[in-house]
């Protein structure tokens, strides 16, 4: 699924990159569609099942992702995916999403990945659908976010 995408790497959030990660921001017209990275880092502190990661490309921090295993449901969720406004429309969002999906599916027991988004975030919806996510019919959170799911077989094909 990663053919022709830019190379991205996930980096742990450290003392050295913490400020730079918190200064990453979506484009002005996207404000309010994705939580600020500082909020996500606070959430990860309060919810240790969350794994926050910086997204790096060609030595530059370009975005942020966070995923978690919901132990109660036994499901992996991608909680955040954001690419800084300066780096959008270069394929980094799709590359980071695909790399995160592949990271989660490295566990052969995992059959589904879940994600939700604010209903007005049409760019997120289009991206998620383009890699194979489909609605599972649920809504969550105070913003009534639709829940989408991705099946391992749908992503990798029947031999995956």
Structure at a glance:
This protein has 160 residues and is an alpha+beta fold. The protein has helices spanning 18-23, 37-46, 92-104, 122-130, 152-156; strands spanning 9-12, 50-57, 60-70, 75-83, 112-116, 134-140, 145-151. The chain has one domain (9-156): Aminopeptidase (3-Layer(aba) Sandwich).
Write the layout of secondary structure elements.
Layout: E1 9-12, H1 18-23, H2 37-46, E2 50-57, E3 60-70, E4 75-83, H3 92-104, E5 112-116, H4 122-130, E6 134-140, E7 145-151, H5 152-156
How would you describe the overall organization of this protein?
By secondary structure, this protein is α+β, with helices and mostly antiparallel strands. The protein has a single domain (9-156), classed as Aminopeptidase. The chain is 27% helix and 32% strand. The protein has 5 helices and 7 strands, in the order βααβββαβαββα. It has helices spanning 18-23, 37-46, 92-104, 122-130, 152-156; strands at 9-12, 50-57, 60-70, 75-83, 112-116, 134-140, 145-151. The chain has a 7-stranded mixed beta sheet with strand order 1-2-3-4-5-7-6. β3 (60-70) and β4 form a beta hairpin. The longest helix has 13 residues, at 92-104. The chain is globular and about 40 Å long. The relative contact order is 0.16. The model has no long low-confidence stretch (mean pLDDT 93).
């Amino acid at each position: 699924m990663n053919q022709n995408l830019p190379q991205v790497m996930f980096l742990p959030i450290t003392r050295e990159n913490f400020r730079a990660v918190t200064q990453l921001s979506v484009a002005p017209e996207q404000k309010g569609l994705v939580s600020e990275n500082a909020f996500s880092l606070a959430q990860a502190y309060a919810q240790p099942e969350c794994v926050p990661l910086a997204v790096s490309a060609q030595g530059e921090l370009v975005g942020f992702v966070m995923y978690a295993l919901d132990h109660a449901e036994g499901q992996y969720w991608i909680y955040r995916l954001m690419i800084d406004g300066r780096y959008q429309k270069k394929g980094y969002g799709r590359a980071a999403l695909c790399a995160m999906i592949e990271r989660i599916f490295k566990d052969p027991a995992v059959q589904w990945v879940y994600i939700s988004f604010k209903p007005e975030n049409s760019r997120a919806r289009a991206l998620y659908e383009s890699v194979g996510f489909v609605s599972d019919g649920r809504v969550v959170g105070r913003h009534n976010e639709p829940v989408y799911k991705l099946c391992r077989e749908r992503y990798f094909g029947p031999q995956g």
